[in-house]
Design a protein that fits this description.
The protein is built from eleven helices and no strands. It has 304 residues and is an all-alpha fold. The longest helix has 32 residues. The protein is globular. The two termini are 37 Å apart. The relative contact order is 0.17.
């Protein structure tokens, strides 16, 4: 671990909510509205940090501890994710499996806190979250297996560092299948349209948001901030694969990555502006498609 890696983590901690602001501004532009300020996510988190938390009598220590553990899991992920061509703070053979488990651990804490409330609505959301995650994790793991097979290493930092535009020329179909699968996983894990709508207030259509209905104050601020970090972390995989800047100029690599992250937020904003939310019965079909794309990528590797 060096000072540069620590700077990358600090930059991510400060910049992650800005991506959600860019996303909101993009949606406002397409709908012809002025929209919230670019730094609205920071204002929301700051406001919630100054409010007290209210706990139901039916909840236990699980409900109070889940936001903290969820944030801890996401914060740990920051040490395992590379930044703009630079390696992660911590990388080793097998860290790609640890990343998958930490994402699953984050989901587990939220599901447990939802069940701990004893609310039928939150229980319904937890059930949907588990069903969706069961399909999403298949696509994620199969995508990881394809990357491991292609690059010959179990370290995500080494995989993303080996990605280049030259590889895209030689293996466009393979990498395109993996990126397409990861993009569906990215939208699903971040509860974005067309899978889920983070701005909805209809309990019967919620998946992720219904699980955090009883959280308030500092706990809710931690959940919002964790969501912003998760958006950055999962998005960074896509940007490293799509825009593998590995030039001899350090700042070109860093700037290309940062602009790519901003472009990803704009892309998600455009998708949410032109698409409606899928019916719940159609969501599994999309997730199975993501798993199929990853499986096809792996089968292509077996044939070569």
């Amino acid at each position: 671990m060096n000072l540069l890696s620590l700077f990358h983590i600090l930059f991510t901690l400060l910049s992650a909510p800005l991506l959600l602001g860019i996303l909101s501004r993009t949606k406002s532009f397409f709908s012809g509205r002025k929209g919230p300020p670019l730094f609205q996510p920071y204002y929301d988190i700051w406001k919630l940090l100054h409010k007290g938390s209210v706990y139901s009598k039916t909840t236990t220590w699980i409900f109070k501890l889940s936001p903290i553990l969820g944030f801890t899991s996401t914060f740990t992920l920051l040490f395992l994710i590379p930044f703009g061509g630079s390696p992660a703070c911590l990388f080793f053979q097998g860290d790609i499996l640890l990343i998958a488990y930490l994402l699953g651990l984050l989901r587990f804490f939220y599901v447990m806190s939802a069940l701990d409330t004893g609310s039928s609505f939150e229980g319904m959301g937890a059930s949907r979250e588990v069903q969706v995650s069961a399909l999403t994790e298949v696509a994620l793991i199969l995508g990881f297996v394809a990357l491991v097979k292609y690059f010959g290493t179990f370290s995500l930092s080494e995989i993303l560092a080996s990605s280049s535009f030259e590889l895209w020329k030689n293996s466009t179909p393979l990498l395109a299948l993996i990126v397409a699968s990861f993009f569906i996983v990215f939208l699903t894990e971040n509860a974005r349209l067309p899978i889920d709508d983070p701005n909805t207030h209809l309990e019967l259509t919620m998946i992720h948001e219904v699980m955090v209905l009883d959280h308030s104050g500092i706990d809710l601020a931690m959940i919002f901030y964790t969501s912003a970090l998760k958006f950055w972390i999962l998005g960074s995989w896509l940007i490293h694969l799509l825009l593998p800047f590995h030039t001899e100029y350090f700042w070109v690599n860093q700037l290309g990555f940062i602009l790519g992250m901003g472009g990803l937020a704009i892309c998600v904003g455009i998708i949410e502006s032109i698409m409606a939310r899928l019916k719940l019965l159609h969501i599994p079909s999309l997730l199975v498609t993501a798993g199929t794309l990853s499986a096809l990528a792996f089968l292509l590797l077996l044939r070569t």
